[in-house]
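note to self — DONT lose this again. spent like an hour looking for the file last time. sequence + predicted structure for the chain T wanted, 336 res
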Amino acid sequence: MDARNGIGGSLTGLDLRAEIDRLRKERNAVILAHYYQKPELQDIADFVGDSLDLSRKAAATDADVIAFCGVRFMAETAKILSPDKIVVLPDMDAGCSLEDSCPPDEFAAFRKQHPDAIALTYINCSAAVKALSDVIVTSSSAEKILSQIPADQPIIFGPDRNLGGYLARKTGRDLILWPGVCIVHEAFSETELLKLRAEYPDAPIAAHPECPAVILDHADYVGSTSGILAYAKDMPGDTLIVATEPHIIHQMEKAFPNKTFIGAPGADGNCNCNICPYMALNTMEKLYIALRDLEPRIEIEEGLRLQARKSLDAMLAMASGSVGMGDLGPVKVTGD
């Protein structure tokens, strides 16, 4: 029996919530949960939110340990920003289809094919790809950062072609797109969405920009997970169709109990295919074990961490308006 994966009888009878609270205090740990995590993980977390916001909040604490209930690139970002803290991920197999679509060696080769281009890279990528990038962006900061880059500057945008395509259409910029997609947002069905809209004709649609254009074209609001939550507060009417991973609805229902939130359907007419299989790997049992054993632990070689930190710092500086693109030097991709 493998107790580390929550299999077998060693966890039977434990009050997991109480044990996690005990270990949180003993380890001086902060627990983070992304909006796409199971409700029980969101409810036990110290902070719930978008990936970068969570990492920044954790960095601002005096915690010794960060337990990140999310996926691997998110926990890596936390480690990049908090190198002196122990960062654990409940399940190290919790990856991301966007990260998987963009291996560092292939991204480096792609950059060499476009030597005059800078790399504006979505945060949903590995630390190694961040280190190969000039500026990291989030779905909420991408447009603001893109607007600061000279119009004649060639730009590689990856790894999400849907987000890149959305930005290109909205700004009129010609972007060199890496061909990655999020398997969750790619699963939404235009046909089923239109059926749902016919059933609820007065309900607006809020969609994440990782969705394909055929979904975004029907959206009344397009934005990040935190942006969609903000839209839910001020939207017209009391019913919202939500085209992103459906676990975000848990936070919507907690914040706005008098409103109705409906997950946009996949091709089979329901939302099951739109639950992120990577996020779903994290469980209360695995969170308990991660806090108990301080494993699985995120480790990043210091040189790689510092290079990845540069692209994150560039994003934070440009998003705040403290520097422009002209103040930042491009990453030089070398080697075979």
